[in-house]
Amino acid sequence: MAEKSGVSQLGYIGVNATDVQGWTSFMGEVTGMQVSGKADDGSTYLRMDDRQYRFLIHPSDQDDVAYIGWQVADEAALDAIAAQVEEAGIKVTPGSKEDMESKHVLGLIKFDDPSGLKTEVFCGAQVATRPYYPSRSSSGFKTGDLGIGHAVVWVPDVDKSLRFYRDVLGFTVSDNIWGRTAFMHCNSRHHSLALFAAGPNMKQRMNHFMVQYNQIDDVGLAYDIADKRGDQFATHIGRHPNDQNISFYVVNPSGFNTECAWGARDVDDMLWETEVYSRATTNYWAHPRGRSETNAAASPFNRS
Q1: Cα four-point dihedral sign 30, 191, 283, 161
Q2: Domain of 99?
Q3: CB of 118 within 8 A of CB of 125?
Q4: Strand 257-262 relative to strand 206-212: parallel, antiparallel, unpaired?
Q5: What would the DSSP string read from start to end of 183-204?
Q6: Dist CA 34 CA 46 (whole Å)
Q7: Residues 90, 209: one domain?
Q8: Are 155 and 260 in the same domain?
Q9: Cα dihedral 190, 215, 19, 200 sign
Q10: 211 domain-assigned
Q11: What Cα–Cα distance (Å) separates residue 217 from each residue in 32, 123, 134, 172?
């Protein structure tokens, strides 16, 4: 029996936004990302490394994640993933020429995951022709083979989504919080995806995305800038026990959270053992609630 293919990293995130300019300012001033281009429809590309972009912000009358893009090694792996998704009973749509041009990739498929989240898998990401220059003083981001960072989404059925990402897309469970969450990795980053159990009044699919800096000082600088801008903090600085990131959560212009982090531990699949955490032990220290009491701030990590 042939070994199944799996995704290798979180390649890009698309966001639907009612305030694209607000996103441009937020990502440039707070996180330090660089605007790398604009599409004819006003969508804005944001860079954080040598890739042409990692975030694509689309003008919209809604505010939420638009899609999540996962990378595979090559066209053979992309074909294998497409077959695996189809075998799981989910319709796969090949990306059009226009799709691939707008996403700056050589190959692309699209489908809705079991919870309805729009998902893309691609190969052949375009490398930018010019060096990456952060929009403010910064050591840069820990990306490369690890991808953007991580994405955390609300799902109505954690077990169903977990089985899909594990058995079809090739993720491995890192740890969880007593069945209410699943933290999953596809490379040595502790988690590239986390699934949170959604309540009946879920308003947005994205809880937060995380970007990881190369130096801890960039977390402090981002915090200071966000504070001076008057941005809302979902949590102040603290540290989680599972990935061990030192981070804070700030509410972005679409109303969900951006986690600015440093210091996550890596996963070695030869040695790693899945762990379980209780709600009472989800912070090593701090991460007190900030000024935001939005739905996006209601994370299992930050509930009393």
Answers
A1: positive
A2: 9-125
A3: no
A4: parallel
A5: EEESSSBS-SEEEEE--TT---
A6: 6
A7: no
A8: yes
A9: positive
A10: yes
A11: 13, 34, 15, 31
Please give the Cα distance from 148 to 136 (Å, whole number).
19
Task: Say if residue 3's pLDDT is above 80.
Answer: no
> 245-288 pLDDT, tens per residue?
999 999 999 999 999 999 999 999 999 988 888 765 566 666 77
**CA gap 161, 157 in Å, rounded:** 6
Q: Return d(Cα 71, Cα 289) in angstroms, integer.
A: 34
Pairwise CA distance, residues 78 & 71, whole Å: 9
175 within domain boundaries: yes
- Which alpha helices (DSSP H) does 5-56 contain, by range? 20-26
User: What does DSSP assign to residue 10?
Assistant: E
Q: Where residue 119 sits, what CATH number does that domain have?
A: 3.10.180.10
Residue 84 lies in a domain: yes
Identify the DSSP state of 213: B
Q: Are 257 and 251 in contact (CB under 8 A)?
A: yes
Answer yes or no: do 111 and 229 share one domain.
Answer: no
- Provide the domain count of the chain: 2
Separation between Cα atoms, residue 82 and residue 284, nearest integer Å: 40
pLDDT given at position 290: 74
The sign of the torsion formed by the CA atoms of 282, 294, 159, 180 equals positive
H or E element that contains 228 = helix 217-229
Stated as kind and residue range, the H or E segment containing 248 is strand 246-251
The residue to which tokens 């860079």 are assigned: 47
Chain segment 164-214, per-residue pLDDT in tens: 999 999 999 999 887 689 999 999 999 999 999 998 888 899 999 999 999
User: Per the domain annotation, does 206 fall within a domain?
Assistant: yes
**Cα distance between residue 185 and residue 189, in whole Å:** 6
Q: And the tokens for 193? A: 């995806």
Return the beta strands (E) in 126-190 as ranges: 149-155, 172-176, 181-185
